[in-house]
Amino acid sequence: MAEKRQNRIPRHVAIIMDGNGRWAKKRLLPRGAGHRAGLERMIALSEHAFDCGVEYLTLYALSAENLSRPEDELQGLFRLFREYFTENAEKLKAKGIRLNVIGDLSLLPEDLVGIIRRGVESTAGGGRGALTLALAYGGRQEIVAACNEAVRRGKEVTAEEFERLLWTGEIPPLDFLIRTGREVRLSNFLLWQAAYAEFYFTDTLFPDFSDGEFDEALRSFAARERRFGKV
Ligand code: IPE
Ligand code: IPE
Ligand code: MG
User: Fold this and answer.
1) Which of 200, 153, 154, 195 is nearest to 180 (CA)?
2) 22 CB within 6 A, ligand 1
3) pLDDT surpasses 90 at 2
4) Bridge-partner residues for 98, per DSSP?
5) Which of 31, 57, 140, 145 counts the highest number of beta carbons within 10 A?
6) Which atom of ligand 1 is nearest to the CA of 77?
7) Protein residue whose Cα sits closest to atom 11 of ligand 2
């Protein structure tokens, strides 16, 4: 029988954090100010999401395609990520949250990758939840990497085995995908994983996406009936 209406909290939530640039533009500020406001919102919202009972939170912070943005915007983003991993690993560790990163890290500056690795290692023991940042991430690239790994292993794979070769291989299925910032598209995020996720799109620009609106999204999720193709 199909899984009925559930007053449950989604176990794995992902957010496409879009709209930082437009948030800044509205205020006549440089795009970098929007990214800083977005990062601050991301830190507070992550804490709120885990307090709500979400166990896995996956955040789209930088796509592989975003790497063709102007150099000064990218350098500003890398600076924010360095700061994030340096200043937040300890706090997350204290809360029992593991940090994780998915994406093609070879596309990022080497020193940033070192900082990321230290953050991931230092929080590895956390048992309360996992916060995964998608950086230099692309869903198609992830699928191609998994295909190549399967070919290297020289044996046909089932869908379940293939799933474990994805960068999200250790993370449970995606339940709920939120996108802020008005666009109604996936922009190459979690293409495989979104197969049976519930979607929530909002016009709110990410720096304005409040804890209260996140709660509203959770209520929307709870009111849905997931059938997974069954009746
Ligand atoms: C999302 O905000 C953050 C990144 C892609 C790094 P944008 O920078 O895409 O903001 P908009 O879409 O231009 O408003
Ligand atoms: C998606 O937003 C990537 C992130 C939020 C990190 P974009 O702003 O890059 O998406 P498009 O270009 O509008 O599709
Ligand atoms: Mg955008």
Assistant:
1) 200
2) yes
3) no
4) 130
5) 57
6) 6
7) 187
The H or E element that residue 13 is part of is: strand 12-16
Res. 207: pLDDT tops 60: yes
The stretch 64-92 carries a mean pLDDT of: 97
Domain residues of the chain, as ranges? 12-222
CATH topology of domain 12-222: Undecaprenyl pyrophosphate synthetase (3.40.1180)
Q: Using CA of residue 141, residue 143, residue 144, residue 145, what is the dihedral sign? A: positive
205 lines ligand 2 (CB under 6 A): no
Ligand 2, atom 1, residue with closest C-alpha: 187
76 in Cβ contact with 62 (< 8 Å): no
Kindly report, residue by residue over 20-52, the tens digit of the pLDDT. 999 999 999 999 999 999 999 999 999 999 999
- 132: tokens are 């995964």
Ligand 2 atom with minimal separation from the 134 CA: 6
Does ligand 1 lie within 6 Å of residue 66's CB atom? yes
